[in-house]
Amino acid sequence: MSRMLNTFPWQRLWRFASVGGLAAFTHFSVMIALVSGLHWPPLGANIIAFAIAFGVSYWGQSRWTFAERQHTTQQTLWRYALTAILGFLINEATLYLGIQVWHWWYVPSLALAIVLAALSTYLISHYWVFKSA
Predict the structure, then answer these.
(1) pLDDT tens sequence across 39-80
(2) Which of 10, 74, 107, 133 counts the highest number of beta carbons within 10 A?
(3) Which long-range contacts (CB under 8 A, 24 or more apart) does 45-52 make?
(4) In terms of Cα–Cα distance, which of 116, 123, 82, 120 is closest to 97?
(5) 75 vs 36, which has greater pLDDT?
(6) How is residue 49 annotated by DSSP?
(7) CA atoms within 13 A on the CB side of 3
(8) pTM for this structure?
(9) Do residues 54 and 84 make contact, with C-beta atoms less than 8 angstroms apart?
(10) Phi, psi of 72 (to 5 degrees)
């Protein structure tokens, strides 16, 4: 067990979480501004918020979290975009379930959606998107 803990990529996971936290903060901020400030519907505002957070996330993950891996921007951008689309679908479906089915307020629904999307995105990024060439 201690060997596994010593070889686990803790630094990479910390970096991924840090960049993800910044992207999540961006997502939340834009979403709240659009919904509370401009009175947009939450599901529509989520599309804009997710797109802006995607830019923050890709830049940080490619330049900092997985920077030591050999990869080309063209290759990783397409893979990351596909990963982000999957993450967005998980995000939007969870948000929909939270708001429409479980009748939650949009903020806890969004929090759960971001956590689920982040977990799937990390695993796919680690094993496929930023895999060393």
Answers:
(1) 999 989 989 998 999 899 999 988 888 887 766 777 888 898
(2) 107
(3) 46/91, 46/92, 46/95, 46/110, 47/92, 50/84, 50/88, 50/91, 50/92, 52/26, 52/27
(4) 116
(5) 36
(6) H
(7) 0
(8) 0.72
(9) yes
(10) -100, 150
pLDDT category, 114, cuts 50, 70, 90? confident
Domain boundaries of the chain, sorted by first residue: 9-130
Q: Which residue has the tokens 């939270």?
A: 98
Question: Where on the phi/psi map is residue 102: left (φ > 0), alpha (ψ -120 to 50), or beta?
Answer: alpha
Burial of 80 from C-beta contacts in 10 A (0-12 / 13-18 / 19+): buried
User: In this structure, what token pair is assigned to residue 27?
Assistant: 């997502």
- pLDDT band at residue 29, thresholds of 50, 70 and 90? very high
Determine the straight-line distance between the first and last CA of the chain, rounded to whole angstroms.
30
